[in-house]
Structure formats: structure tokens, C-alpha cells
Specification:
The chain has 177 residues and is of the alpha+beta class. The chain has a single domain, classed as OB fold (Dihydrolipoamide Acetyltransferase, E2P) (Beta Barrel), CATH 2.40.50.90. Helices cover 29% and strands 24% of the residues. The strands form 2 sheets. The protein has a 5-stranded mixed beta barrel. It has a two-stranded antiparallel sheet with strand order 4-9. Helix 3 runs parallel beside helix 4. The protein is globular. The chain starts with a helix and ends in a 5-residue tail after the last helix.
Length: 177
């Protein structure tokens, strides 16, 4: 019996290591978990799981297996995302490079998520719970809506903009522990 269990576990481990790439084009998925404000696990129609990282928005950090620190407004961003999309069906658009390959960041696919016709990244930025991520916004002119939302949140001191000198997540991640 133990050998059968070990054989099944090994098969499942191997299958997960060779998971199929995400679907091409927009697809529907159910949000099964929100790890922080900009990372979710999705259940696809075939019941497989897919880890994604939001395109454009970069939320403050929360503790994870690599870094136990919490950044200001990280828990608020996580709660915001959870409250909006957890357990709900969303439309997912995987971001692809110029060769058509899915873009990944920290073993997660980079994606846009739409819920109820709204853009999750834009809502996080509007509420002052994320920065516009410069890694994904070239050329800048194509992302003016996001930069305008960030400027508006800053002007109204929404969320993280209440701090005098908020630290961008990409800076926070590289600071000494």
C-alpha cells in the first residue's frame, strides 16, 4: 500500500513539474487564493491550478517563504484583492513577449485580471494600494490611464500615499533584512 501511495505521489509531482502552459487568449478562471495584493492562484476550467502575478500593478509586500517582513499597506492590498476576487470567476489575459511566449515573474505567469468588467490592477492603483510597475509599462504612453490613477491617488493621499516617503516594493525587496 505504501508503495502505491509513493508511486501516485511521484506521478503527481512529475505531472506538476510539466504543467501545460496557460491558455492562449482571454480565458475564465476562478480565484482560489490571494497570496498578496498582486498574486493569485487560479483554478482553470480543466481544474488545474495556475499562479499569476498581476501585470502593471506592484503591491506592497507581505511575509512569504523568502522574506518575513511586512511592508506598509501590504496587508490592506491583500485584503482588497481577496475581497474583490476570491472565489469569483474572472477573465484572465496572460501577457506574452514579442515571440508569443508567456511572461513569468518569480515562477508566476504575468496577467491582467478583469472582474465584473473592471481591471483589478487599475483598481489597486486607484485606491493607493499599488504602484505602477515600471517593468511592465513601456512605452509609457500606452499606460497613461494607470499613471493618471497613481497620480490621483497620490494627490488625494489614498492608501500608501498617506506615508510621507512610501517605499516602492521593488526597492523594499532589495533592502537589507
Amino acid at each position: 500500500m505504501r508503495r502505491i501511495f509513493l508511486a501516485i505521489a511521484l506521478c503527481l509531482l512529475c505531472a506538476s513539474a510539466y504543467a501545460a502552459p496557460p491558455p492562449i487568449g482571454p480565458f475564465q478562471a476562478t480565484v482560489a487564493g490571494c497570496h498578496d495584493g498582486d498574486s493569485c492562484t487560479l483554478v482553470l476550467p480543466d481544474h488545474s491550478l495556475l499562479s499569476i502575478r498581476l501585470h502593471i500593478a506592484d503591491c506592497p509586500e507581505v511575509p512569504n517563504r523568502h522574506d518575513p517582513r511586512t511592508q506598509a499597506y501590504g496587508p490592506e492590498a491583500t485584503t482588497f484583492t481577496h475581497d474583490l476576487v476570491y472565489g469569483k470567476t474572472v477573465t484572465v489575459h496572460i501577457i506574452r513577449d514579442k515571440h508569443g511566449n508567456p511572461v513569468k515573474s518569480y515562477q508566476r505567469y504575468v496577467a491582467d485580471i478583469d472582474y465584473r468588467g473592471d481591471d483589478l490592477a487599475l483598481d489597486l492603483i486607484r485606491h493607493g494600494l499599488a504602484w505602477v510597475d515600471p517593468r511592465y509599462t513601456t512605452p509609457v504612453a500606452a499606460y497613461q490611464t494607470y499613471y493618471a490613477a497613481e497620480n490621483d491617488a497620490h494627490a488625494h493621499q489614498s492608501g500608501l500615499w498617506r506615508d510621507i516617503h512610501p517605499i516602492e516594493p521593488w526597492v523594499f525587496r532589495h533592502e537589507e533584512h
